[in-house]
Fold:
Amino acid sequence: MKILNIVGARPNFMKIAPIHREMGKYPGLKPLLIHTGQHYDKKMSKLFFQDLLLPEPDIYLGVGSGTHTEQTARIMLDFEKVMEEQKPDLVLVVGDVNSTAACSLVAAKMQTKIAHVEAGLRSFDRTMPEEINRMITDALSDFLFVTEKSGLENLKNEGIPDNKVFFTGNVMIDSLKFFLEKARESSILSDLQVNGSPFALVTLHRPSNVDVKENLENLFYTFSVIGKEVKIVFPMHPRTKKMIDTFDLENYVASIENLIITDPIGYLDFMQLMQNARLILTDSGGIQEETTYLGIPCITIRENTERPITVDIGTNVLVGPKADRIIHETEKIISGNGKKGKIPELWDGNAAERIVKILSEDL
Ligand code: UD1
Structure:
């Protein structure tokens, strides 16, 4: 049984790692790792392969950046050739990036079965490219593996038959649990001189936050206020760095007190920062889940989330982009009045085991 496991962008790597490892335990399965090259910088890709103990990709497509249509189309053209050569029994995709949707479309047109890990999440906001990717991928998939109960409801409402849908838990938490001890060996806290002092960790890369000058400037104003109380560590995504240059905000950003900006950092260093942070300010999807698992307060700078369980029972609060709301929630946490959360059902480190068992029996 040949399976093509697809990765493209940074948040895919920690999701595929436990699945690829688990498939290796089944003599009847032959998993191949295909990297589309959507993310290609060493710090956005290779570093993660090393940290997550992932083998080199069996096939690397090297598609790189472009508009959404260019990137999606390039992945499709190159992946079609891979499909013709490899003739797999299944294509397994994770998450909601352009690589996820592009490879699903090719597989569906070549009448090959598709498994989608992290199916059913919906923000109901079609201005997000990821929402389009989620809907396309779920509509085409034969196996839909769901991380939280909202996903089951969403798929039912979209008419996906129950027998295709499996509530298996969260593979991102599999990686987190697996690597948490190892992450404690990281020297990142002393490297950045934040050991022993409370600090906020920031990540930002959503087009809605960083591609509009006014919005980006407003967020840095917010950090200038928060920086008066705690240090802020901000590993910066290439998209955000590019927009700071484009909008000529370098001097303003450099003038902000207590703001420590770094290049993107690897998985283990980031886990170490996250588990020691007083709070996290983010617009990422996965970090909302990781902080809920770790019990670290998370302020999500978005109007909506496709991961509502992190707000319903976890440590996440949605604040939107307004400075006063972000500052208010941050101060609440710093003064010890942050949300206390619970860990969602089946976020137990064994999701990949459940997924691969189902595939090995039903494929
Ligand atoms: C992509 C995903 C997003 C995910 C994010 C995580 C889509 C639609 N978006 O967004 O869901 O949350 O990854 O990081 O798939 N760049 C580099 N080096 C790289 C990669 C990108 O410099 O290795 C720069 C390029 O200028 C590029 C820009 O970042 O144009 C954006 O990259 P892209 O892959 O288009 O989207 P992300 O914003 O990374």
Notes: The chain has a mean pLDDT of 98. The chain has two domains: 2-170+347-362, 181-334. The domain at 181-334 is CATH 3.40.50.2000 (Rossmann fold).
